[in-house]
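To assess whether ligand presence alters the predicted conformation, the chain was also submitted together with NAP. Input:
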Amino acid sequence: MTNGATSPRTDAKPVALITGGGTGLGRAIGAALAADGFNLVIASRSAEHLAAGAGELRGKGARVLEVPTDVRDPAQVDRLLEAVRKEYGRLDVLVNNAAGNFLAPAENITPNGWRAVVGIVLDGTFFCSRAALPLLRQSPTPSIVNIIASYAWMAGPGTAHSAAAKAGVLALTRTLAVEWAQYGVRVNAVAPGPVRTEGTDRQLWVSEEIVESVRRGVPLGRFGTPEEIAESVRFLASTRASYITGQVLAVDGGQWLGKGVMDLRGQAFPPDPKSP
Ligand code: NAP
């Protein structure tokens, strides 16, 4: 109980909070967690995105709380977690999925553009994790899954702001995994490969040439689906992953391992000189 207000009820079902849960991968992650019996909280800036996402997720049988939130603002994030406490009285899983991104050579990224992307991805992940900890530590099976990208450890030409921010989130994932192990909180990351969503079609895969060159760079030869990414989050958030913490799972059709590997597929090899 706080400030003399009535105690929130504590739900029997586990609860997952997904930032950016109204669109794209966040919405698919919500659907996968709903299938595992989670009730949901989705948070992002646009009430329209949240309403559309919540409508679909309720259709999957989950209770859904929508909380308009800009994750760059720690006061709004605190209000978000207070709303979770009031509505459900518990939090079991936090998925830091919200992000912003745009294509630009590093020298053309303005300080405002830089701050916007780093603010959403890195600050937002830290603010949400920090504010969620008091509720998470009361869960019997708490975990955090951060959505990053393989350029967190590779290179992200054309997206220096996002690459730097995701690298920060990877370091935070590993650091919090160690610091918060004492509270039983597991912290992992998923690095999706290229997946076509409304957001990426608008901001990244902006021409058929880009789409084709990205596709060619994936050893499995195709873009991933939101459901394929969501399945990996569902696994890491579940008790099936109860001894996994501080790890990053690349779900990318082999994209990052294929980088820089000499591509000899389809080449005619000369006959072995020693063979008769
Ligand atoms: P998306 O649909 O554009 O998702 C981004 C979400 O973040 C939106 O729901 C957006 O909602 C929310 N958001 C943006 N700024 C916010 C803010 N300041 N506060 C709160 N929420 C905010 O794109 P997506 O492809 O599904 O991406 C989801 C995640 O996957 C991101 O972390 C992205 O970096 C990662 N990822 C995607 C790909 C891919 O190919 N799709 C590859 C690698 C990694 P509002 O507009 O309502 O705020």
